[in-house]
């Protein structure tokens, strides 16, 4: 998903490792008004969750997660 800011620059929704915060973050997010993106703190929390880390490292595959959700009626 991409959006454009006032200057027309593309904002890519790709989290990258941020050395300063020691977490995954959207590079452009530190320069925007938080009121513009009220759900951004929640997305950042989810991106840095243990589940997201397990998916990134291959400890859990997306198909494993889908199967667990299906078995548990979610």
Number of helices: 3
Unreliably modeled segments: none
* Percentage of β-strand residues: 15-25%
**What structural class results from the helix and strand content?**
alpha+beta
Fraction in helix = 25-40%
Mean pLDDT: 83
Which H/E pattern describes the elements? EEEEHHH
Which strands sit side by side, in order, in the main sheet?
Answer: 1-2
Number of strands: 4
Shape: elongated
What distance lies between the first and last C-alpha atoms, to the nearest angstrom? 26 Å
Describe this structure as you would to a colleague.
This protein has helices at 40-47, 50-57, 62-71; strands at 2-4, 10-12, 16-18, 23-25. With 74 residues, it is an alpha+beta fold. The strands form 2 sheets. Strands 1-2 form a two-stranded antiparallel ribbon. The two termini are 26 Å apart. The model has no long low-confidence stretch (mean pLDDT 83).
């Amino acid at each position: 998903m991409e959006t454009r800011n006032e200057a027309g620059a593309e904002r890519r929704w790709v989290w990258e490792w941020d050395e300063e915060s020691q977490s995954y973050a959207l590079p452009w997010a530190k320069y925007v008004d938080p009121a513009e993106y009220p759900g951004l703190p929640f997305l950042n929390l989810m991106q840095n969750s243990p589940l997201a880390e397990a998916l990134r490292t291959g400890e859990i595959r997306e198909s494993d997660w889908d199967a667990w959700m299906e078995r548990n009626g979610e």
